[in-house]
Amino acid sequence: MKFQANRDVFSEAVSFAVKLLPQRTTLPILSGVLIETTDTGLLLSSFDYEVSAQTEIAAEVEEPGKILVSGRLLAEIASKLPNAPVQLSTEESRIIVRCGSASFTLLSMPVEEYPSIPQVSGQSGLVPAEEFATAVAQVGVAASRDDVTPVITGVQLEVGDNTLGLVATDRYRVAVREIDWDGGSGSGETVTALVPARTLQEIGKTLGHSGTIAVSITNKDDRELIAFTADKKTVTSLLIKGNFPPVRRLFPETVDNYAVINTAELIEATRRVSLVLEREAALRFSFSLDGLTLEAIGSEQAQASESIDALLTGQDTVVSLKPQFLLDGLGAVHSEFVRISFTKTENPNKPGPVLITSQSSKDQAGADNYKYLLQPNLLLR
Question: Measuring CA to CA, which residue among 92, 93, 91, 99 is closest to residue 14?
Fold first, then answer.
């Protein structure tokens, strides 16, 4: 094999191919990136049986071939090469990388032992890339990071004829967002896919500026896969098996008791007052017609409180919330103001979850249909 490619293009392609691979793999062969020559250039691939990445780039191919090389090492080298075309050639079991006056010799890995990259056929639909990336970032914060219950470490995608719903929960909070979906003629049936949150977040960052993303879901040989394709880049992921909890039913139809607050002011006040808190402790939020007061009782040595403006509709309300969970929700609301709605439970002495939504102005609700439901600290015990 022998080829020459643009340094920046080659470096970005290798980086993309290895980005989703785990830091440590059970099989060393899976840490490799597969480079194949094509009629127009190169095809770079990586696969660890759960997730795969594949991208095509232009290159001047002198001798066709196929090699497997340590992905992270090649990515490190490619990112630090001088500003000149990259030349790669093979000599028996060695790979020579030259760029300007720099030269590297790497050991090749056995191509014949590398597994076949999964192919997902058929196109389920298209989503606007930027909107998809935003939605994934908004919802992904609520996904569980505890592998003990794998089903809630994912983001549930719910495909309708014209909308794609994204839902995530870690039992303490639920985040939901809907975006446009172009499913062609549409089957009329809702299709669901439970995708690992980490994989989906990486896809959102990588493909978020690509115009549109093609999404395909397939069930082949008892392996349920989803594929995301844009700009000659494709990522496939094995779906999480299991039933996602029916968390949508937790959202109330209407809430009459709510407060509207400047988002940035609430974020800053929450960060300041929570400085004195012990880990896992909650902040006390008191909403009244006079505004909002935040109180933290950290220890005998430190307490804090702060008051900010809030426009309350309904009765005075006091809730205790974990500050980081609240900040996650507020950070996902991309509007100047935020609405915090207070739901009810059957026990009048026990507050229900608070519902966080965007607010375009003090008196107008936001239009992005993002919803974040957070349990007050009292219900976590």
Answer: 99
Q: In which region does residue 78 sit, left (phi positive, over 0), alpha (psi from -120 to 50) or beta (all else)?
A: alpha
Query: 186 phi and psi, to 5 degrees?
Result: 80, 140
d(CA 113, CA 23): 20
In a domain, residue 120? The reply is: no
Q: 196 and 97, same structural domain?
A: no
Q: Would you state the structure tokens that stand for residue 98, as one six-digit string? A: 């030259």
Q: What is the CATH number of the domain that holds 329?
A: 3.10.150.10
Dist. CA 206–CA 235, nearest whole Å: 10
CA–CA distance, 178 with 164 (Å, rounded to integer): 6
Does 95 map to a domain? yes
User: Are residues 321 and 212 part of one domain?
Assistant: no
Domain boundary among 207, 233, 249: 249
Instruction: Write the pLDDT tens digit of every residue in 291-302.
Output: 999 999 877 788
Residues in contact with 130: Cβ distance below 8 Å, sequence separation at least 6, in sequence order: 208, 209
User: Do 266 and 372 reside in the same domain of the chain?
Assistant: yes
Q: How far apart are CA 230 and CA 89, in angstroms?
A: 29
CA distances from 83 to 42, 44, 77, 78 (A): 20, 21, 13, 11
Residues of the chain with pLDDT under 70: 122-123, 185-188, 220-222, 377-381
- Give residue 19's domain range: 2-113
CA distances, 127 to each of 147, 167, 366 (Å): 29, 16, 21
Q: What is the pTM of this model?
A: 0.90
